[in-house]
Amino acid sequence: MEYNRSGEEGEKISELGIGCYALSGVYGDVDKDRFKATLSYARELGMNYFDTAAAYGDVAEKILGEVVKPQREELILSTKIGLSPKDGSPPLSFENVKASCERSLERLQTDHIDIYFVHFDDPQTEVTETVAALDELKEDGKIRHYGVSHLPIKSVEEYLKEGDVTFCMTELSAAARESRKRQLPLCRKHGAEVIAFSVTGRGILTSRFDGTERFEKNDIRSMDPMFKKERLRSNLRIRDELKELGEKYDKTPVQVAINWVLSQKGVISALTGPSSKEHLEENAGGSGWNLERDDLNRLESFLEKEDDILEKREKEIIEEVLNNEPSEGVEEAFNDLVYVMEVSSSRGIVDEREIEPVFRKLFSLRKKGDLKSSNIKEIRQRLKEIIPT
Ligand SMILES: NC(=O)c1ccc[n+]([C@@H]2O[C@H](COP(=O)([O-])OP(=O)(O)OC[C@H]3O[C@@H](n4cnc5c(N)ncnc54)[C@H](OP(=O)(O)O)[C@@H]3O)[C@@H](O)[C@H]2O)c1
To answer: Which of 182, 267, 270, 335 gives 20 to 30 Å between its CA and that of 383?
Structure first.
């Protein structure tokens, strides 16, 4: 395992880190003991960076706390501010940020968090208020650094301007490259280091899938655009290209995929989250070597061609979904709308903040078991109004 120097003198962070998202059940049912054993195995592989979040459920912080406790001072631990409190107050208010941190410290059984991330947007709270809470937590020694995670780009920029942001966490893999356009340059401009997440593309860049898989309903990949339509086809072509490149280095496609992420300017660590030791061991082989410049260029040309194909085809898909009758099955029609929303916001066709309430509405209907064709049509109509086609 290689370690990149972080901005702070003497501190090192492993190129590959492990995260606990899977403990939330996002990738379907998870065996907690098996996941815990995989977290421990990460230490044996030389990894010193561990990530979790309050939103992954109490158990995720508790399990990680138990794993890191014996070697706490040697490890870098990050977690994220919790979601909306039950009293309905704004989640990123001064008081809530501080209270959320105390709860995480307790669950993690530690007296400090190395990197504390803002996990989501809160339009009700001024960024300066949240930053004031984070600064105070830093002064009190409860957190060592803070960062921003999966927020709309405009919010990321505000935090970078207003706060002492050391790290930005963003999705980046050969299957999800959008952050290279705006987020990575922005972080570099403000001197924040980038931690990339879902670097295996939630498994799509491994040898595991052939495109015929059917995911369980409780697995997010059952609706993830990365596993649907043109994106799925493109991602499998990319995986095959990584496979071919890897033969020269005796590396698997996912090892090449991870190495490519680490080659991106500003990226200090790549986060993966497998539940199996074998998968983690394979992923660790993505660190400790470098793709040659010629091969990086070859991959870049390949990805550019894929970008062109995708851009053209995805615009057509957006038009098809918005202008034709919804798919027969409600679940399929739901997935089509998710695809359109995800793609149009990640491509900057529509402002993320504009699409966010529609996203929330669609998911709350599904959660309530209230998805029916009249609702689908209503949401499709709203999307037609805000997405230029
Ligand atoms: N800030 C945010 O908003 C945000 C969002 C997402 C993630 N994150 C952080 O980043 C971490 C990593 O993201 P992620 O969990 O999505 O990572 P990931 O490693 O890209 O995806 C995990 C999934 O891919 C599969 N997988 C991984 N390596 C594999 C391999 N070598 N062969 C076959 N399958 C493999 C795993 O399967 P198995 O379980 O079968 O091994 C699991 O289903 C998270 O745990 C979390 O800490 C942050």
So the answer is: 182
Per domain, the residue ranges of the chain are 3-291, 296-386
Give per-residue pLDDT as tens, 346-374: 888 888 888 888 988 998 988 888 888 88
Q: Is the CB of 27 under 6 A from ligand 1?
A: yes
Residue among 109, 196, 121, 206 at smallest CA distance from 158: 121
Q: Which SS3 state, helix, strand or coil, does residue 147 take?
A: strand
Contact partners, residue 50, CB within 8 Å, separation at least 6: 17, 18, 19, 20, 39, 42, 64, 67, 68, 75, 76, 77, 78
Task: List, for residues 156-173, the tens digit of each pLDDT value.
Answer: 999 999 999 999 999 999
Tell which atom from ligand 1 comes closest to the C-alpha of 169: 1
> Rounded distance, CA 163 to CA 1, Å?
32
Ligand 1 mean position, distance from CA 21 (Å) = 7
Question: 195 - beta bridge partners?
Answer: 169, 269
197 CB near ligand 1 (under 6 Å):
yes
CA distance 6 to 166: 9
| Alpha carbon of 199 to ligand 1 centroid (Å) | 7
Indicate which residue's Cα is closest to atom 47 of ligand 1.
Answer: 19
Classify domain 3-291 by CATH architecture: Alpha-Beta Barrel (3.20)
